[in-house]
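Its record is retained below.
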Amino acid sequence: MRKISLTALSLGLMLSYQVEAAEIYVRDIEVDGLQRVETETVLSYLNINKNSNVSSDYLNDSLKRLFETGLFADVNFDRRGDGLLVIKLVENPIINKRVFDGNDKIDDALLESEVQLKSGSIYNIAKVQEDVQRILEVYKRSGRYATAVEPKIIKRDQNRIDLVYEISEGPEAAISKVNFVGNTHYSDDDLQSEIMSKESRWYRLFSSAENYDPEKTNYDKELLRRFYLKRGYADFRVISAIAELSPDKKSFVVTYVLDEGPRYEVENIVINSAIRDVDTAPLYDEILIEKGDWYNADLTEKSVFAITEELGKKGFAFVDVTPDLRKTANGKLDVVFDIDEGQRVFVDRINITGNTRTEDEVIRREFRIDEGDAFNAAKIRASRRNVENLNYFSKVDIQTEPNPEDDSKADINVNVEEKSTGAFNVGVGYSTVNGALFRAGVVENNFQGKGQKLSADVGISQRTSEYDLSFTEPYFMGRRLSAGVDLFRTEEDYQDEGSYDSESTGGRLRLGWNYTDDLAQYVRYTLKEDKISNVDNTASIYIKEEEGKYSNSSIGQTLVYDKRDSAINPKEGYYLSFGNDVAGLGGDEKYLKFDGKAYKYFTLADYYTFKLFFNGGYITGYNHQDVRLSNRYYLGGSTLRGFEFAGIGARDKFTKDALGGNWMIYSGAEMSFPIGLDEVGVRGRTFVDMGMLGKPDNINKDYVDYSDTPRVAAGFGFQWQSPMGQIDVDLAFPIVKEDYDETEVFRLNFGSRL
């Protein structure tokens, strides 16, 4: 504790004696008590000359300056009768070692980065208290509000100490309850599914969503706003978001008070341009909302971007497109897009901060705007979305900073917070197709901070084994060109389906690029060796004649047009792809192969998601060569529910071995719907599947059962996004089938990708 002989600084400097004059005479100065600090250092703060008169106020200021250095625990001024001024000092000790004790949940490195006092620092009680608060804040951010920190000192020789922060972490403050007040159009369950903060439940053992975080709560307000604005509630607002901590500091009750407001229908869509040369007529094609629709803020924003982009292509670089919502007399909305001439501003610099591991170039190349370009808010928003989609960062913040010396220039400041981009996964599962399975893999999506992806994966089940090694460079040769290489080996047991085993070992080179944000093309070269082995003596003659090894050298491409709102859990939009492969660039195989996919998604009443799907394929040999077993199509299991894997198509009459087909069609419809368990991540579904499998080469109908008539099955089931992975359970009942088809009513898939 500081000890000062001066008791009332406001009344003047009080020394160990009574000061009775405005000035005192200082003949000489003596400094006492120093161990590490040099005498000259102390005198430099005093700036008092020997054999001079010094005012008491000046001595008072000198005393303050010495304390403010943080070097001393105690300072005393003493004057002797012969004009000698004695400065008595007690130095603060040096921190020999600073230790965190009891921090099991927070790494030393994180705490180290937060506190001020380090090993070798001068001990300061005020800074110790500040560091205690910093440590508590770290724990609050991790959801631990009951944390206690007690600093302790262990004295060492030579005026050194060990500083120990004893930490009692306490439990994570979970969210015991989430309440919504003011919601009449959507239930609590509906809104709960939209926000990040979740109520504490046993099945969230592996999730942090149930831990309270004020930043998460703030983000929830934005998620709720987006949810309502997307559905026509243009006046929606979150009045308040209140988190109440329980007396034991172990849980929170979070309450969101909402004002939904009315739901608005779009009555008119208007484009007004203040720029004379702008032809507004073609711009209406860029607007994604229509008259009679419910207002949708998301589509409105995308329309602003599309209009801005189109005007940019026409040479109008400096435009502001602003949506104006005008309420009509009959309670609807006119959506007016105002086009005005924007300020002529150019991007001066793009500054990137916060990335300690990821290289600047990885972030910079995702920008749709460069230094020197005309400022474009729509392109900046697109750039932010691109950086966020990298999935390397927990936060991406982009701010525009005008140049104070030149109003025609502005800097773009990008601040990111990195997150873990690597993972090691180990899992088990079960599938009615593949049986019990084990999978282990490691993946790094930002290898060496260069944005490269490196992965290794092993999957072993009762009928299939997979080994994969993959590397992808997303910007090959500095261009927007994705390049990659894959090495693989697959072993499959077809004894039940065809009385043989199949092996495939090889590698693949990949190249891909985007024409637009939605349209992409991929090309590939594959070199592999296929092997048919362990053919049973009783196997079909069509299988026996293919036993052996065959090399396959092929080149292929796939064109993809993806307009889905999400690649992971799509609810709106569509997906189209077309691909073809040519084998025969060396090797034993010679064939042409064509594949196409089409998916359409749409949602009704925000809950019922419909999917229409179509898959088709055709393969044919050339140069008088037939298509071999390993290259044919098979249907059943995960494709064409209600039938076993390879359950339809040509089948040997005597051995019942499946022979596959040279073409296939698999299509159907599926509806996903809530069953009251959205909180748990469970949704129901009902479906109708249709499949057809074409005739393989060189079969004799006297020995082979075959029909290319459609097979149809219908059923229902559910999908659970469990903490341990996705679980699919289906009951499917064949409606149209052949007598020789192999059916499967029950299908379970847990943790399987095989």
